[in-house]
């Protein structure tokens, strides 16, 4: 699965999940469990230090990418088994 943490993203209405459609397939923004506390810290107008608060508000994942990786790994394992069964041990360059 390809995934990223998204920091300081505040979306109007604070949706739990947002699906984004891209040429690479669907992506989902999923609200973090600590969203309320993080949003409060980010949007606070009280005294702040020189470094502004940063917090993870959403988790971004590519669901389709996960399915593709699973298929690629399964194919690689089958190929590896075929090479070993043919008696040609794999050679790895370090």
- What gap, in angstroms, lies between the N and C termini? 27 Å
Helix/strand structural class:
alpha+beta
Main pleated-sheet profile: 4 strands, antiparallel
Outline: elongated
Kindly state the number of beta strands: 4
Provide the gyration radius in Å: 21 Å
Strand content: 25-35%
Q: What's the average pLDDT?
A: 78
What order do the strands of the largest sheet run in, or round the barrel if closed? 1-4-3-2
Low-confidence stretches: none
How do the strands and helices of this protein lay out in sequence?
Layout: E1 2-7, E2 17-22, E3 25-31, H1 35-43, E4 56-62, H2 63-85
Task: Write out key terms for the chains shown.
94 residues, alpha+beta, 2 helices, 4 strands, 34% helix, 4-stranded antiparallel sheet
Provide a brief overview of the structure.
The chain is an alpha+beta fold and 94 residues long. It has helices at residues 35-43, 63-85, and strands at 2-7, 17-22, 25-31, 56-62. The longest helix is centred in the C-terminal third of the chain and has 23 residues, at 63-85.
Could you explain how this protein is built, in words?
Helices cover 34% and strands 28% of the residues. It is built from two helices and four strands. It has helices at 35-43, 63-85, and strands at residues 2-7, 17-22, 25-31, 56-62. A four-stranded antiparallel sheet has the order 1-4-3-2. The chain is elongated.
């Amino acid at each position: 699965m390809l995934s990223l943490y998204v920091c300081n993203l505040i979306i109007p209405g604070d949706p739990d999940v947002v699906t984004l459609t891209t040429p690479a397939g669907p992506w989902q923004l999923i609200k973090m469990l600590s969203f309320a506390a993080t949003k409060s810290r980010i949007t606070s107008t009280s005294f702040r230090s020189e470094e502004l608060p940063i917090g993870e508000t959403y988790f971004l994942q590519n669901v389709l990418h996960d399915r593709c990786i699973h298929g690629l790994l399964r194919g690689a394992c089958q190929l590896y088994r075929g090479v070993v069964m043919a008696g040609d041990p794999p050679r790895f360059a370090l």
